[in-house]
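re the bet — no i am not wrong, look at it urself. input seq straight from the record:
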Amino acid sequence: MRSPLMISLRATIVAACLFAAPAADAATFALVNLDGPGEGFNDATPAAPQGGNPGTTLGAQRLNVFERAGAIWGAILPGNSTIQVEARFDPLTPCDATGGVLGSAGAVTVASDFTGALVPDTWYSSALANRLAGTDLEPGTSDISARFNSSVDDGTCLGPASWYYGYDHNEGSNVDLLAVVLHEIGHGLGFQTFATLSNGSFLNNRPDVYARHLFDRTLGLHWDQMNNAQRKASALRTGQLVWNGSSVTANASRFLGPAATVRVDSPAAIAGEKDFGTADFGAPLPDPPLQAAVVLVNDGVGTTSDACETIVNTAQVSGRIALIDRGTCTFVDKALRAQAAGAVAVIVGNNTTGPPPGMAGTDPTITIPVVSMTQADATAIKGQLGVGVVATIGIDAAHLAGTDPEGRLRLYAPDPLEQGSSVSHWDVSAAPDLLMEPFISSVLTSSVDLTQYLFADIGWLGNISGAASGPPPVATRAYSAPNPFSRATTIRFRLGHSGNTAVEIFDVNGALVKRLPDSWRPAGPHSVDWDGRGATGRLLPAGVYFWHVRSEGELQKGRVVRVE
């Protein structure tokens, strides 16, 4: 038998206040308040209640937001353990009027080869390890450590913006603390790798369960199959690093829309989807997409391909996609000259290494789509113009945003490396935006979207069969998703025996509010949809509800949150 191995990642202090009332087989969260008197969670500055948050001081509102986040996560995660989150508000850098760090979080300890571990020689975050072990492996030690930027409220960061403490995600130009807390707790629960990305090494030469699900499309290898140098390079491979977990892939279509695509169709030597940036001006990417030949512009002066003077090869550009080099004039000027030459779209090739640039500017007269491309991709296109290059730009209804051609979610892997962001987030190409992307988005709600399915892949929702480098992991425990939900959720369960099956919904007082139609079901996996309505057909109030699935002596149950 292997002896359990545990490693502390940071110091902890324990003095907790419980959040989220415990329920049968549901996780409970506790805040370990590390703030001093009068600061952070203890700030007594008067504040008006907002967005359903009844707190009348800044500190009380911050505590209430954490309570709400704990209730949301607790409704999803099984296990009777208490997950301790130590947190504080501190000034965080970098942060200025245009952007900054909002928060950071991670597991306090990791464990391997404990009783209940699903994969040997593998690190698990302490919260997940405790859930699998069925006991607290390190009593008295916090599971998650988090910090949040106090400068957002004091005017020294993000200009006039401040933290929004409401529950309704109606933050306007402010920053939604609830979404940020949900995001950071997600990291601490297991949405992170413990590898050192700057050199590719694993913690104590041992992979973590998250890293076992990372797959590099270029190499055709999982991270646990690579050497350090390969992992280091993989962390910079934008668009090619994906999550190879069956639960996430199977449920991606529930949360993602069609992909915006820039693709080279021919010649075969350079064909494929390309990483691209977008412009603040010009037409939206067309739906259906446009396909046309690519032509390098010529303005006849200096760097002739930068379109900083009037384009002279209009006969070649007209009706085609104009390829333009980034240069001394503005992106708007380039696009205007290409449009005047008759181009149907513009690709701006970067003039330095790094990701495709975002293109700022305003001009309502630009009516063609404008995208950017990496220097390497633009150079490859130039090298093939002699044989003819055909590209497609637009919305691809057959492809989900943020996924690879096989439907796997892309991870954030920019070049150069971004410490604290790279690899442990979904890629920003996902649309609509997901909770675990590296940047806050105003479209986020209380949904933890695909994060709950990633947690199913790494073991939170039940046993998995095989490591990521072998058979795909499969969640076997009953659960509901999306959770929280607004208008509909799906209860998923597995029956050990065939028989008549009843699905019942109860309120927090234990009263039966809905019984879904009984039916005979064979052994195996099943799902039932609930639209949030009670027995009278009226939409039930927002709140916590419990569901029971009964069949031939089997009882499976869970908790779900309905939000407005």
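see?? The chain is about 15% helix and 25% strand. told u. also The radius of gyration is 26 Å. so pay up
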